[in-house]
């Protein structure tokens, strides 16, 4: 048998083959059970010609395999090219859930304060006047004590008018230092309209430790406001009056819409009011048995709805309570 | 409180732009709502186009019955011809004229026009057109000694900025122009004018009969008597100030009382002496059953707690709140008894709330007025009464109880530094306190001025005085912590995990009011005086709110509605306060099965063992038969079809109970090394047999090697017979220690077949 001739013949046949079927035919022809090579191998008696023919078989097998692999690639390409789709058609539908906007903001605030090492307290909503007013240094004649402003269950029990009573409960339950925030629902006798709701959410913050100052309050609130409204925000304090803090201030944040230049959102002032805050009044500290000469503290209260309305430009607070999916799915 | 800028500048020479002043005040002293403008706009020579005119001739317009044709001397060589629609004047009247080109308040520009064929070279202005008051019944008549041609702006505040302040309850001293001037003088280190008001000569010594029966409610009563009072309009400067301050000019005597209140902060009242029985004043509590008609024409029932000003026979004013109609100063009044008193604040506040009557006066009294102010207020009022109404001052009395002594406080400037967080030199602190009116002794004993006694009683209050002026300098620091332990509690972490799991399942979070119109629980707490009937109960279940939201979404045509809410409910018990557990409620399309699937997924998300589902009946809002208790945690069910069209599934679970079963640390179990043997087993059982009980029984007899047994299909039909059903279970046997052989699996299967046969009469279908 002429090895060289056979090898040449196989090479040229492989070169001409252009389908996997032809490759299979060539395999049968050159390497099949009744092929010339197989027959020759069966006849081999000496070691030398055996080696020669086996080497040829290996070469032929390799050549065949190489050609098959090439042709497979070509065929795959052809197949893929026939499979074009419209990628602009929608994907398969998954129902997607959404957290309420207030929950999203509540978590953002919580995460800021967790990062600062605060605990989070879930205060109770039905409160006694003892915690809602007396403990907060609210004088007996204070207007929010009247049923005209607040929702009472009886003379001594009401729906809390702010999240502040949780301050008192926390301080009564532990020794200083205290670092906590308390988000939750509060209640006022307000008829619902675009900016009022009889039920809304506040977050209370309280830090009591040795040497707490207004500067600590300012830095803390700046940190929070930048987390909520962007790194460019600035913060200022305006003097104010609350019974439970002294000095009392209202923090203003530079307007996130106009960067302080003045626009309708900030009523052209460049600043937006964000809530109430101050140094915890010594009467409040004494009420819970803390020594105002030993420790001092700051406290603040912010409205979560206010943040939502301002930041997301929601025009009406009632949208937050209607749960219309067209609204909820935006956030 | 509205403060005309020119009035302020009478007491303090502040020269900066009003906007700049407003910004500073807003930070250090008082909230500024806005800076507005009263009167004529001050632009581009506009003030100059408003001048004094004297009417030389006035007659009916030749072509119009309702118009007058006037020749008006404007101090120019020739008189101007002006057509006017008012008839309250004639030749000789001195009037205010807007010349062509003038822009009047409201923005209209005056032109030289022809009215009914006659040229009109300007406009004669009414009080309202100049924003000096409300009167528009005729034109404004000016004093006859004003020279024609004089710019009106030289005679009174023709137009000026108004500071509109929102004064907080602790600063009643700022409810007065002079008080604000004092604050500004301190802030800008300017010189403050002495308080306005100097007594003229007392012309007689007539007795003034004042008796104060309640010196606690009324610690001071200055009464002054005036004779020969000419009631008439106030001069333009006074009208301009009152209008700028937001009050309506009425008559010289009433205007003086209002003016003094605005200037100094002490409300006054003027009585017509002739209408006081026996000409006497008695300050006392109302007798029970007493009534009076107040100036607003309303009959008021008085309470024995109400402090009243009475004459010898009846109440003539509710002290500090409103005068009575019967003793009101009228045009014919000739003798006036002026009250400059001091009333105790809480009593006024309570009376004002009882009567639902709030006035400029009550607003000041309830915040606390300096009792030492009454005398100065009386002086200013007397000076103006004499000057403006030609009255003779003929009597004076000053009844006093014990007036509070000025408080003194020991102050540590270093304490202020600590609390403010920025060092402020001690001498600067001293200077600041002194400018605010405090006396500071060498040893830092601080005496509080009487106009601040209510607000400043402790060292911390003085710290605030320092702080509020230095707020912009307070640096941004964080507390220097020595201990850090902030983290979510376990329940808070679980709550977040539940929120996220439900979102992942396609639920949208809802918020609904905790106050509802009704509640299924008869023990639900009812508010005795709710905002409306819609908000009368504190809810014991969240589902009602979700149903409401569902309906809104259905009305809007929204699809695939799946809502959840996590909130407190309120359960009354024996304690003073209700329990407030947190509940997780859901409402979804797809009926019972989808709601149950969500509950099961939630349990898996918390790595809690699968709960039992026991049929439950008569749960509120649910289909009577398609409802189940979920372990000890809550319930799941099909919404009652009356509540919403279609099939809706609902659940409500207790967060605390879920926390009990949630697993914090999952321990690895080998489900990888040895393969599971999977089989489908179908059993025919009677209709009433629950798949759950069959699985429970199978678990009992097989133990841990029964890895899974889920009911995957239920079939009813002729092949299984009437009253029966076939349940197919997907079963997986697996050991974590070895590969189970076919014999092992067969033995386990045999145990299941046997126990289900024994307990439920189940037969295995082959």
Q: Notable features of this structure?
A:
heterodimer, A: 331 residues, alpha+beta, BirA Bifunctional Protein, domain 2, 2 domains, eight-stranded mixed β-sheet, 12 helices, 11 strands, 20% strand, elongated, B: 766 residues, Phenylalanyl-tRNA Synthetase, Chain B, domain 1, OB fold (Dihydrolipoamide Acetyltransferase, E2P), Phenylalanyl-tRNA Synthetase, Chain B, domain 3, seven-stranded mixed β-sheet, six-stranded antiparallel β-sheet, 26% helix
Annotated CATH homologous superfamily of the largest domain in chain B: Phenylalanyl-trna Synthetase, Chain B, domain 3
Strand content of chain A: 15-25%
| Secondary-structure content class of chain A | alpha+beta
Q: Show unreliable segments of chain A.
A: none
Number of distinct helices of chain A: 12
What is the overall silhouette of chain A? elongated
**In the CATH hierarchy, what is the architecture of the largest domain in chain B at level 2?**
3-Layer(bba) Sandwich
What's the helix count of chain B?
17
> What's the story with the biggest beta sheet of chain A?
8 strands, mixed
- Coarse shape of chain B: elongated
Q: Structural class of the helix and strand makeup of chain B? A: alpha+beta
- The strand count of chain A comes to 11
Number of domains of chain B: 6
What is the CATH architecture assignment of the largest domain in chain A? 2-Layer Sandwich
Structural summary, described in words:
The complex is a heterodimer of chains A (331) and B (766). Chain A is of the alpha+beta class. Chain A folds into 2 domains: 3-81, no CATH class; 101-328, BirA Bifunctional Protein, domain 2, CATH 3.30.930.10. Chain A has helices at 3-16, 20-31, 36-43, 47-81, 101-115, 129-132, 165-173, 214-229, 282-287, 304-312, 319-322, 325-328, and strands spanning 119-120, 126-128, 152-154, 157-159, 178-187, 199-209, 235-242, 245-254, 271-273, 276-280, 296-303. In chain A, the strands form 2 sheets. In chain A, strands 1, 5, 6, 7, 8, 9, 10 and 11 form an 8-stranded mixed beta sheet that branches. A 3-stranded antiparallel beta sheet of chain A has the order 2-4-3. In chain A, β3 (152-154) and β4 (157-159) form a beta hairpin. In chain A, α1 (3-16) runs parallel beside α4 (47-81) and α2 runs antiparallel to α4 (47-81). The mean pLDDT of chain A is 93. Chain B is elongated, with a radius of gyration of 42 Å. In chain B, α1 (5-11) packs across α3, α9 packs across α11 (459-469) and α12 (490-504) crosses α14. In chain B, 44% of the residues are buried. Chain B has 766 residues and is of the alpha+beta class. Chain B is 26% helix and 26% strand. Chain B folds into 6 domains: 2-40 and 160-188, Phenylalanyl-tRNA Synthetase, Chain B, domain 1 (2-Layer Sandwich); 47-157, Nucleic acid-binding proteins (OB fold (Dihydrolipoamide Acetyltransferase, E2P), Beta Barrel), CATH 2.40.50; 209-400, Phenylalanyl-trna Synthetase, Chain B, domain 3 (Phenylalanyl-tRNA Synthetase, Chain B, domain 3); 408-469, 2-Layer Sandwich (Phenylalanyl-tRNA Synthetase, Chain B, domain 1); 490-661, Bira Bifunctional Protein, Domain 2 (BirA Bifunctional Protein, domain 2, 2-Layer Sandwich); 677-765, 2-Layer Sandwich (Alpha-Beta Plaits), CATH 3.30.70.
């Amino acid at each position: 048998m002429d090895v060289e001739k056979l090898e040449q013949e196989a090479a040229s046949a492989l070169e001409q083959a252009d389908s996997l079927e032809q490759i299979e035919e060539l395999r049968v022809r050159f390497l099949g059970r009744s092929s010339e090579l197989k027959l020759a191998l069966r006849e081999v008696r000496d070691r030398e010609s055996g080696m020669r023919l086996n080497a040829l078989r290996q070469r032929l097998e390799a050549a065949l395999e190489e050609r098959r692999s090439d042709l497979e690639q070509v065929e795959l390409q052809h197949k893929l090219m026939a499979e074009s789709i419209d990628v602009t058609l929608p994907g398969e539908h998954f129902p997607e859930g959404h957290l309420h906007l207030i929950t999203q903001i509540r978590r953002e605030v919580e995460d800021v304060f967790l990062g600062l090492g605060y605990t989070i307290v879930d205060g109770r909503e039905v409160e006694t006047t003892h915690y809602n007013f007396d403990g907060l240094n609210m004088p007996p004649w204070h207007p929010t004590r009247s049923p005209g402003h607040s929702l009472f269950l009886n003379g001594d029990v009401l729906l809390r008018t702010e999240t502040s009573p949780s301050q008192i409960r926390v301080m009564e339950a532990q020794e200083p230092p205290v670092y906590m925030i308390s988000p939750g629902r509060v209640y006022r006798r307000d008829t619902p309209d675009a900016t009022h709701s009889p039920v809304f959410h506040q977050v209370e913050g309280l830090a009591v430790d040795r040497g707490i100052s207004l500067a600590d309050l300012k830095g803390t609130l700046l940190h929070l406001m930048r987390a909520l409204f962007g790194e460019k925000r600035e913060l200022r304090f305006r003097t104010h009056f609350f019974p439970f803090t002294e000095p009392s201030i209202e923090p203003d944040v530079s307007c996130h819409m106009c960067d302080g230049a003045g626009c309708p959102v900030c009523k052209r002032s460049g600043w937006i009011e964000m809530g109430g805050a101050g140094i915890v009044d010594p009467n409040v500290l004494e009420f819970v048995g803390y020594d105002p000469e030993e420790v001092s503290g700051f406290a603040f209260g912010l409205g979560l709805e206010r943040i939502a309305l301002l930041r997301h430009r929601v025009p009406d607070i009632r949208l937050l309570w209607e749960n219309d999916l067209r609204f909820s799915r935006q956030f | 409180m509205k403060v005309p800028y020119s009035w302020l500048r009478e007491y303090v020479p502040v020269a900066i732009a009003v906007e700049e002043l407003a910004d500073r005040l807003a930070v250090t002293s008082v909230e500024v709502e806005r800076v507005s403008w009263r009167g004529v706009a001050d632009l581009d020579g506009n003030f100059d186009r408003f001048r004094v005119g004297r009417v030389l001739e006035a007659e009916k317009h030749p072509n119009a019955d309702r118009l007058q044709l006037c020749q008006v001397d404007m101090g120019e060589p020739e008189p101007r011809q002006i057509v006017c629609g008012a008839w309250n004047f004639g030749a000789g009247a001195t009037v205010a004229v807007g010349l062509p080109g003038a822009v009047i308040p409201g923005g209209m520009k005056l032109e030289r026009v022809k009215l009914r064929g006659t040229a009109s070279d300007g406009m004669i202005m009414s009080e309202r057109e100049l924003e000096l008051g409300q009167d528009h019944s005729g034109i404004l008549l000016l004093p006859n000694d004003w020279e024609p041609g004089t710019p009106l702006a030289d005679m009174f505040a023709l137009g000026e900025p108004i500071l509109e302040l929102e004064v907080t309850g602790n600063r009643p001293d700022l409810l007065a122009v002079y008080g604000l001037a004092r604050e500004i003088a301190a802030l800008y280190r300017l010189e403050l004018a002495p308080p306005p008001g100097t007594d003229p000569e007392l012309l007689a010594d007539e007795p003034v009969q004042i008796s104060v029966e309640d010196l606690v409610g009324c610690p001071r009563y200055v009464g002054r008597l005036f004779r020969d009072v000419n009631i008439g309009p106030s001069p333009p400067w006074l009208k301009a100030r009152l209008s700028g301050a937001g009050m309506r000019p009425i008559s010289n005597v009433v205007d003086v009382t209002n003016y003094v209140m605005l200037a100094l902060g002490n409300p006054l009242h003027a009585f017509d002496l002739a209408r006081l029985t026996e000409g006497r004043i008695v300050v006392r509590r109302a007798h029970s059953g007493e009534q009076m008609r107040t100036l607003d024409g309303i009959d008021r029932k008085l309470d024995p707690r109400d402090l009243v000003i009475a004459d010898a026979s009846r109440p003539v004013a509710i002290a500090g709140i409103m005068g009575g109609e019967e003793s009101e100063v009228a045009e014919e009044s000739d003798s006036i008894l002026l009250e400059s008193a001091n009333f105790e604040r809480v009593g006024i506040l309570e009376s004002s709330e009882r009567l639902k009557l709030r006035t400029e006066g009550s607003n000041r009294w309830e915040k606390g007025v300096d009792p030492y102010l009454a005398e100065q207020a009386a002086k200013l009022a007397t000076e103006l009464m004499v000057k403006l109404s030609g009255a003779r001052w003929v009597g004076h009395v000053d009844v006093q109880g014990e007036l509070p002594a000025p408080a003194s406080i020991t102050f540590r400037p270093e304490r202020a530094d600590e609390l403010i967080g920025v060092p402020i030199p001690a001498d600067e602190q001293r200077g600041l306190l002194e400018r605010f009116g405090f006396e500071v002794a060498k040893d830092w004993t601080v005496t509080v001025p009487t106009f601040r006694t209510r607000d400043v009683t402790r060292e911390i209050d003085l710290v605030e005085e320092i702080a509020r002026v230095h707020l912009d300098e307070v640096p941004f620091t964080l507390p220097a912590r020595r201990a850090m332990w902030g983290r979510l509690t376990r329940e808070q972490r679980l709550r977040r995990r539940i929120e996220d799991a439900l979102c992942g399942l396609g639920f949208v979070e809802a918020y609904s009011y905790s106050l509802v119109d009704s509640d299924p629980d008869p023990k639900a707490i009812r508010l005795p005086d709710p905002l409306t009937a819609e908000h009368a109960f504190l809810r014991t279940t969240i589902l009602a709110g979700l149903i409401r939201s569902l309906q809104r979404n259905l009305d809007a045509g929204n699809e695939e509605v799946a809502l959840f809410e996590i909130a407190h409910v309120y359960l009354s018990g024996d304690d003073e306060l209700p329990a407030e557990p947190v509940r997780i409620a859901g409402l979804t399309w797809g009926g019972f099965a989808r709601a149950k699937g969500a509950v099961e997924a939630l349990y898996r998300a918390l790595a809690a063992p699968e709960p039992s589902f026991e049929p439950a009946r008569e749960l509120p809002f649910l289909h009577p038969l398609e409802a189940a208790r979920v372990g000890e945690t809550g319930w799941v069910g099909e919404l009652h079809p009356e509540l919403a069209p279609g099939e809706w599934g609902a659940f409500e679970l207790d967060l605390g109970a879920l926390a009990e079963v949630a697993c914090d640390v999952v321990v690895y179990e080998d489900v990888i090394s040895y393969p599971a043997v999977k089989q489908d087993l179908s059993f025919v059982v009677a209709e009433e047999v629950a798949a759950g009980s069959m699985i429970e029984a199978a678990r009992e007899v097989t133990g841990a090697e029964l890895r899974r047994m889920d009911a995957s299909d239920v079939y009813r039909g002729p092949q299984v017979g009437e009253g029966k059903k076939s349940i197919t279970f997907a079963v997986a046997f697996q050991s974590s220690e070895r590969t189970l052989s076919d014999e092992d699996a067969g033995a386990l299967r045999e145990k299941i077949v046997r126990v289900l046969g024994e307990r439920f009469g189940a037969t295995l279908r082959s």
